[in-house]
Amino acid sequence: MQAERPIGELLRQWRRQRGLSQLDLAIQADVSPRHVSFVETGRTIPSRPMVLRLAEHLGVPLRERNRLLVAAGHAPVYAQRALDDPDLAKAREALDRLLEAHEPFPALVLDRRWNLVLANPAARVFFDGADPEVLEPEINMMRLGLHPKGLAPRIRNLEEVRGFLLPRLARQVAATGDPSLSDLYAELAEFGGGDFPAPDPSDVVLRIHITHRGEELRLFNTVTTFGAAFDITLEELIIETYFPADDHTRRTLLKTATA
């Protein structure tokens, strides 16, 4: 956990990131603006219920809610378990079924730092031919996709993919302050890119065109998360499912699955 800052400073940072005034937050959380001001300036230390109420209305992730609680002198309340923990058995079963059901098209489960957690057999289209250097555990899918020794040489629309992924990673760095993500961004930015046009608001999916065993595959992806997560691990999981963008890709992946 990062070195702690005062609870008021942390809450003020989240409020500003959400583009809210103290009055906006007070109205949403049904507290007085004076109370919000006192919390942010350190004149009042909020109770645990108040921290959780403000965090809920600010949309603060569970990991960071724990951090807010600790900064206010309270014990954290959200657990973080390994995915193979018995308490997460139903969630793990759901993930396995989702990956299996998406065959013969690629599907991946990633953690908050883009490390691979689970994948179905069809996802091998992303790994074939990659240098062992980028396939060592933990496999980082952002690195694999943009590294010259990874998938990048097989991506036909590499600049478009870079222009989608690097700004997304930069926003993560800005939102979380995670030094690991910052280091990852610095590493990947060296491979090219950095100045990108403003994204098209209607561009909500990543399109990726890759060569695979002499065939060109055109895919697009969607991202799913656990919307009502009760555990930090579950909240931070990202499920990426890839779909064929044309009939040739669909037929090729179907043929590959039955070969």
UniProtKB/TrEMBL annotation:
Gene3D superfamilies: 3.30.450.180, lambda repressor-like DNA-binding domains. InterPro entries: Cro/C1-type_HTH (IPR001387), Lambda_DNA-bd_dom_sf (IPR010982), MLTR_LBD (IPR041413). Residues 11-65 form the HTH cro/C1-type domain. Pfam families: HTH_31, MLTR_LBD. It comes from the Bacteria. SUPFAM superfamilies: lambda repressor-like DNA-binding domains. This is Helix-turn-helix domain-containing protein.
